[in-house]
């Protein structure tokens, strides 16, 4: 390289360095590993920009993000903190399809170093919790060995049946705790959605403490409205986050809300609130 060509190259490098200096990574305590769903970024933002902003804000990854997203996530040092799994295991009629999906998705997650896959439950459609529990336990006992061998945690999500998901089967903590107890696997846990359980049960911190052995992942959103977790809603997320951290939790907490204000400012604030 000649001196004449070297100068423009160095000038370009300096420009890149200056651009990077203008967008430094936001410093965090990091005791609680945080992620976010795509909805937190509002409408119209590309995956590339979401990942860039996630890395800048100190997030560990995106939640509910599938294999097509993973190369971009990895480019920015991120992971899918909750990968696709399957759904509907409370009904036997869904088991064959769900088992194939879950088996494939556990393999994909393990191969890419993604820690969790999600299972959501279908609506009741007339079946009792007792029958749904038996069906779910039967299914999970067939797949738990694969999850254990691959080091991937199956997370069972809670919903509310009062506002967002009428007739939801998995709408109370006790239902999923009982399933986890019967399955007896360190790789079958609860995705405890704080927003949903605030609507159904309240008493969030006590519930987390009493059932912490079965907690594998957390979701946040403000109630009422499922928007920002700021002082416009009723939950004290700083206290909730502190309670989780004090239990020596090593998993992830992800934000899952629709912002009313500036998406990046709202997300920065949400991360700060939970960065205890």
Rounded average pLDDT = 93
Q: How many whole angstroms does the radius of gyration measure?
A: 21 Å
Poorly predicted ranges (pLDDT <50, ≥5 residues)?
1-22
Tell me the overall shape.
globular
The domain tally reads 1
Percent in helix: 40-55%
CATH architecture: Alpha-Beta Barrel
CATH class: Alpha Beta
Major sheet description: 8 strands, parallel, barrel
Q: How far is the first residue's CA from the last residue's CA?
A: 51 Å
Instruction: Find the CATH superfamily.
Output: Divalent-metal-dependent TIM barrel enzymes
Structural class, please? alpha/beta
Instruction: Note the run of SSEs as H and E.
Output: HEHEHEHEHEHEHHEHEH
CATH topology: TIM Barrel
Output the number of helix runs: 10
> How many β-strand stretches?
8
Beta-strand fraction estimate? 15-25%
Q: Which sequence of strands runs across the widest sheet?
A: 1-2-3-4-5-6-7-8
Topology of helices and strands:
Layout: H1 3-22, E1 33-36, H2 47-57, E2 61-63, H3 70-75, E3 79-87, H4 95-112, E4 116-120, H5 129-150, E5 153-157, H6 173-183, E6 188-193, H7 194-200, H8 204-210, E7 215-220, H9 237-246, E8 252-255, H10 263-274
Parallel strand pairs: 1-2, 1-8, 2-3, 3-4, 4-5, 5-6, 6-7, 7-8
Helix pairs in contact: 4-5, 5-6, 8-9
Task: Describe it.
The protein has one domain (26-274): Divalent-metal-dependent TIM barrel enzymes (TIM Barrel), CATH 3.20.20. 45% of the residues lie in helices and 15% in strands. It has helices spanning 3-22, 47-57, 70-75, 95-112, 129-150, 173-183, 194-200, 204-210, 237-246, 263-274, and strands at residues 33-36, 61-63, 79-87, 116-120, 153-157, 188-193, 215-220, 252-255. β7 (215-220), α9 (237-246) and β8 (252-255) form a beta-alpha-beta unit. α4 (95-112) packs parallel to α5 and α8 (204-210) packs parallel to α9. The radius of gyration is 21 Å and the shape is globular. 41% of the residues are buried.
